[in-house]
Amino acid sequence: MSEEILINVSPVETRVALVENGVVQELYIERSHGKGYVGNIYKGKVVRVLPGMQAAFVDIGLGRTGFIHVADMIPEPPEGESRRHDLPDIRTLVRDGQTLLVQVAKDPIGTKGARLTTHLTLSSRYLVYMPNSLHIGVSTRIDDEQERERLRQGVETAAQASGVSGGFIVRTVAEGVDTDSIVADIPFLQKLWADLSAKQPTVDAPAVIHEDMPLYLRALRDLARAPLEKIRVDSRLSWKQMRDFAANYYPQLVELIECYTDGRPLLDLYGVEEEIRRALDTRVPLKSNGYLIIEQTEAMTTVDVNTGAFVGHRNLEETIFKTNLEAASAIARQLRLRNLGGIIVLDFIDMQDPEHQRQVLRTLEKALEKDHAKTRITGVSELGLIEMARKRTRESLGQMMCEPCPVCHGRGQVKSAETVCYEIFREILREARTYNNEKFLVLASAVVVDRLLDEEAAYVADLEAFIGRTIEFQVETLFTQEQYDIVLV
User: Fold this and answer.
1) For 46-70, what is the mean pLDDT?
2) Which residue range forms the structural domain that includes residue 171?
C-alpha cells in the first residue's frame, strides 16, 4: 500500500487529501475565516452553572459560549477502570464568574457551542502530554502487548529522568519507533507547557492561551506515517515552513516534502476535486452497480445499501452477500471522506446466513481500523441493522461546505404544484367569505400558474361561479414553487 498527502494552500482555504493507492480516503478543509478550534486552550469565564444538567456554560471569546460537563472536570479514571457514576455536584467545582483553563474537545456544530474539557492535552509527533494527569498510556490501536509494554516503560523512564510532572499517551504512529526518537518529544512538550503556564496569569478571560498549528503542519504531525511516499504542497511559502518544521521535529520527512509546480491544479491529481463533489451527494455508486444512500440529519446518519442493477451470477443470497461485502468497505471510506460522526445506522440488505452476517461485520470492522476517529460497532440487530458510533470533533464535509436549501429549508423536497394550487383555492375561499372585493389576482411561480390555467382550469371556472368573482393569474419570476400571494382587487 502506498500513501500520498496532497496539500492545496490558498489565501482563503487550505485543503488536505490523504490518498491511498490512488484513491482518496480522507479530506480536511480549513478556511481562514472559520478555522477549527479543537485543541485550542482558552482562559474562559464561567457565565452560567446548570445544576440540573451537571454542566456549565463558559465564555471563551468565540461569540457562542462553550459547554462543559462535570465529567470533563474531574480527574480521568486509571487505565482499565470505568468512570464512576457518583459524579460530584458541579456547584462544588465551579461558580458563576470563575475563570477556568479549558480546551476545546469538539468544534461548534450547528446551533451547539464548543464542547470543552479541563483535561488538557498537548500533542507532538509521538506523544500526547497531559499536564493534569499522572497516567502513562499507550494507544489502544497498538495490539502487540510486548510492544505496548516497551513503549510504556520507555516513556515512563524518560519522564522520571527528566523530572517532568504529568502523564503521557504514546500515539499509534510510535509503533516500531526507537525509544530515543519517542522520548525526544518530551522536552518540547515540557517547554510548551511552561510557556502556556507563564502566559495564563498575564491575560484576562476570555482569551486564547494556545492555538493548534495550521492544517498543513498538523498534516505532518498527524497524518504522515509509513508507508508514506510523498507529501506534495502547491505553495512555496508553506513548503518552506513545512520543511523547516520537519527538520526540527521529523527529519525523516524532509525529503518527502515536495513543492508542486505543475500547471495542472494539485487536487486534480487522483480526481480529488471530483471526489469532493461526489462526497456531497446522497447516492454513492458501487463497482458492482449497487449503491449506497447516505442521509445526514441532526440526530444521526443513516446508510442504506441497495443492489441496484447488480443481479449476480449464482443466486439471490450470493448476490446480496457480495453487495454487502463491497458496501462495508465503501461505507468505512465514506465515513472518513465525509467525516460523518455521532450515531450511524447501517441498513445492509437482509442476509439469512449467519456466516454471511459475520463476514460482513468483520469486513466493516477491518475497514474501520484505518480510521483516525474512534468508532464503536454493535452486532447485527433483529431488524438486520448495524448501529455504530464515530467520534465527532468537527463539522462534516457537508456541514462545512453546504447550507440548507433556501427553497425547501433542508427538508429535501418541496410541495408539488398540485398541492400549492389546492392551497390557493382554499385561501381564495377564505378571503371571499371575509372581503367583498371585485376580483382576485394570484401571483405564483410559472409552474403553478401553468397548472392553474391547464389541469385546474375547470375547477377555477367552478370556483369563480361559486364566489361570484373573477380570478386572474400572474407569473412572479422571483417566487419559488411553494410561494404565492393573493391580491384583492
Assistant:
1) 90
2) 41-210
